[in-house]
Amino acid sequence: MTKAVWQVDKSHSALEFTVKHMMISKVRGAFNNFDATVEADPNDLTDAKIEFSVELNSIDTRNEDRDNHLRSNDFFDIANHPKMTFVATDIKKKSDDNYDVTGDFTLRGVTKPVTFDVTVEGVGKDPWGNEVAGFSGSTKLNRKDFGLVWNAALETGGVLVGEEVKINIELEAHKQA
């Protein structure tokens, strides 16, 4: 297979995160509006071009008050920083279908290198004869590294919001003609 442009099918894709709440449970959320540019040979991602852009306003934690707080200056400050982006800068093959994809991750005006563990889930044809590829990826980052420092102390000790954020991505992409 040769390098091609792949269009992300948002209806079969997800961008989700998990963060500790009150040091005892986890809160999950998703971003419902994102775009990705993937120019790659799914059999060898080492020279792929991968870019992500996420509309932070599309956050959904199934709680409107919490979502609005996350949109505020306490967290994402979407009035000044409406998008989160990732641009791959280095891709290393770990095994047949597994890669370390490192890139410039930008959130709230701060850009730092972040590495995603990416798996090519497979390539095949849909019922209409279109080539489709599946990718999954995950990473962990410290939200404080990106200026998301708001927190509240708990009476019992500890804090309301954990520092470590786990990000999980599931992508289905269609090869463009």
TrEMBL record:
<dbReference type="Pfam" id="PF04264">
    <property type="entry name" value="YceI"/>
</dbReference>
<protein>
    <submittedName>
        <fullName>Polyisoprenoid-binding protein</fullName>
    </submittedName>
</protein>
<comment type="similarity">
    <text>Belongs to the UPF0312 family.</text>
</comment>
<feature type="domain" description="Lipid/polyisoprenoid-binding YceI-like">
    <location>
        <begin position="5"/>
        <end position="174"/>
    </location>
</feature>
<dbReference type="InterPro" id="IPR007372">
    <property type="entry name" value="Lipid/polyisoprenoid-bd_YceI"/>
</dbReference>
<dbReference type="InterPro" id="IPR036761">
    <property type="entry name" value="TTHA0802/YceI-like_sf"/>
</dbReference>
